Every structure is written in C-alpha cells, then in structure tokens.
Amino acid sequence: MSAHRVMAIALRQAYLLRGSPVRILPLFGWVAVDIVLWGFITKYLNTVAGRGIDFVAALLGAVLLWDFMARVMQGFTTAFFEDVWARNFLNIFATPLTLPEYVCGLVCSSVTTSSVGLVAMVLMATLFFGLSFFSYGMLLVPFLLVLFLTGITLGILGSSLVLRLGPAAEWFIWPIPAMLAPFSGVYYPLSTLPAWMQYIGRLLPASYVFEGMRAVIAGRGAPWGMLGWGVGLGMMYLILISWFFTRTYHRAVRTGLIARYSAETIS
User: Fold this and answer.
1) Which terminus of the chain is more exposed, N or C, with fewer CB under 10 A?
2) What is the CA radius of gyration of the chain?
3) Is 181 exposed, middle or buried (0-12, 13-18, 19+ CB in 10 A)?
4) How far apart are CA 91 and CA 231, in angstroms?
C-alpha cells in the first residue's frame, strides 16, 4: 500500500473543500443547529426537573457523540459520492491506485472532516451550555473509537449499496443514522425499549457507548466491559463490511456496472 496514493485521495477532497466554501458550511452548519437546539432543550429540562439530574451531560453529551458518529459516516460517503457524481471511477482506477488505498484515502478524509465538526461541537457545548466534556479525560478515547469504527463501517456499507445499486440509491443512505438511533439507546437506556428492540440494540456497537456514558454520568465508574464489547463488535462489522465492499466492487468491474452509472438507472 502506497502512502502517497492514499494521501492523494485525501488531498483531492481537501482541494474540493478549498475550492468551494459551500462544501465547508455543512461541517459547521448542522452541528451548530443540533448543539443550539438540544442545548436549550437540556437547559429547560434542568429547570423543570429540579436537582439530581444533569440533562446537559446526559442528553447534550449523547447528541454530541451521536453527531460525531454521523459525521464520520457522512465524511466517508460524501467523499465517495463526489466520485459517483463526477463519474470519476474509471479515471481513478485506471491509475495504479488499489481499492484498499482508495478506501484508506476516504477514511483519512472522513477523519479530517469529522474532527473539525467534533471540535466545533465541543467548543459550542462548552462555551454556551457548560458541558465539561474534557473532564472525562482519556475515557473519551474508547468511546470515540467505537463511534469512529461504527461511522466508518456505515460509510463503507452505504458506499457498497450505491456501488451495487447505482447513484439513485444514495437516498437510502442518508437516513441510516436516524434509523439506527432508536435501537442504539442514544437518548434513553436500552431497558426502555421492547424486548425485540433490545436484542437488536445489543448487536449495535454504539449502544454500548451510550449505556456506558450513562453509567459514567451516574458515578458507577468506567464501563470497560461495555466498551470492550463495543470495540469488538465494531471491528467485526468493519471487517465484514469491508469484505462486502470488495466483493461489490469486483462484481461492478466484472459486469461493467462501474462504467454505466446514471442517476436514472438502478440495476
């Protein structure tokens, strides 16, 4: 694997961002909306719930972490869609670039854009709503690792579906975080859900992050067991989805689908 070719893919995305301020605005725009909206909701809940419950940490912290995961996914898929929209795959893979190098380049691009969004979210939540996010110290690392693995896995899954079904299938991809949120226990414990939803939730790595976060806020200590399960599931899903993406790519090359993309055709 060539680091130069990996960085070339990431650099292409950087040039796209630099050349179009409109592409930069979404890195901050939706982040600001989410933080402001949920920040005022949590402040209101703190006033009506009385002492003993800190909704800023419980809810605003959950929103921040879930938004981070969604930004990781969207950072990957958006970079992939740039090549879909430009019908650029044949140009890219006519070069010595390999599929793992291409994927790693998209991951690097996603890391950069999601990190920018994360910093913006943390600063806004800290300055305007008093969320002491850094008080958790190094415990944040495994939380963010699980969410990063989940976001990259969902990004690769979404790209695989578009690669298989065609560009029009991108409308199936954007709602994925919203569809998973109820099962992941982002805003409430998994025990709140019906039994069948709890079974699904336990299969999702992100659910262990939010269950663990609530345990830390409640003063029950670091949930290393939960985080271990989250990391393990995240790694397993990443390997499986990467295999699926590779199979989908080779099928698209073999059948000629990669050269016949059009917004009107799903085949």
Assistant:
1) N
2) 20
3) middle
4) 36
Distance CA 97, CA 217 (A): 46
Residue-wise pLDDT for 160-172, tens only, equals 888 888 777 778 8
- Mean pLDDT throughout 129-141? 73
> Residue 3: its pLDDT value, please?
82
Alpha-carbon separation of residue 246 from 102, 161, 241 (angstroms): 11, 12, 9
Tell me the residue type at 194.
Answer: P
pLDDT mean over 3-12: 84
Q: 5 is written with which tokens?
A: 């070719």
Selection from 23, 3, 18 nearest residue 105 by Cα: 3
C-alpha–C-alpha distance, residues 55 and 42, integer Å: 5
Measured distance CA(241)–CA(239) in Å, rounded: 6
pLDDT of residue 212: 86
What would the two tokens of residue 108 be?
A: 């690097």
Give residue 49's pLDDT.
67
In whole angstroms, what is the distance from residue 54 CA to residue 33 CA? 21
Q: CA-CA distance, 72 to 97, in Å (whole number)?
A: 23
Q: Which two tokens stand for residue 91?
A: 């140009």
